[in-house]
TrEMBL record:
Residues 13-152 form the Activator of Hsp90 ATPase homologue 1/2-like C-terminal domain. CDD domains: SRPBCC_CalC_Aha1-like_2 (cd08895). Belongs to the AHA1 family. This is Activator of Hsp90 ATPase homologue 1/2-like C-terminal domain-containing protein. It comes from Streptomyces pilosus.
Length: 155
């Protein structure tokens, strides 16, 4: 059975606003990197069948060695499904020599109206075994907190 990691939160913005932040290159660079990292998008094609390549750099790699290099995680992300204001499904592949990070992880960002905001639930399936569950769920939660701050400040 494949491993599933989850995180979620309610964000004080409409589903359309949150969806827009999931599909805007500059927005993604600003909010997706979890605490302790920064990100740079190298390739961007926001359509089903398209995707992006992101380089995530650890601000202090001492306690968090990267998967791709000592200080970086590089991911190739494909957009498998895009449903405006409802769902973004991504296929994520880590660039890593270590086989414990191999394979394709699916990340589904589900958006549901919740009062004046949006409940955002992220479900990661087929998570590579080299990724620590606690660290991964904390990283997703950190990205969601960044997303909330980003869209709520813009609104």
């Amino acid at each position: 059975m494949s491993r599933i990691d989850r995180a979620g939160r309610v964000i004080a913005a409409s589903p359309a606003t949150v969806y827009g932040a999931l599909l805007d290159r500059k927005s993604l660079e600003a909010w997706l990197p979890p605490e302790g990292m920064r990100g740079r998008v190298e390739r961007w094609d926001p359509r089903p069948g398209g995707g992006f390549r992101m380089v995530l750099t650890y601000l202090d790699p001492t306690d968090s060695p990267g998967k791709t290099s000592a200080a970086t995680d590089v991911v190739d992300v494909g957009f498998a499904d895009l449903v405006p204001a409802e769902r973004v499904v991504q296929r994520v592949v880590f660039e890593a020599d270590d086989p414990s990070y191999a394979g394709t992880m699916t990340m589904t960002w589900h958006l549901a109206a919740a009062g004046d905001g949006t409940e955002v639930t992220v479900t990661a399936t087929d998570v590579p075994p080299g990724i620590d569950r606690g660290d991964h769920e904390a990283g997703i939660a950190s990205s969601l907190a960044n997303l909330a701050s980003y869209v709520e400040a813009a609104g």
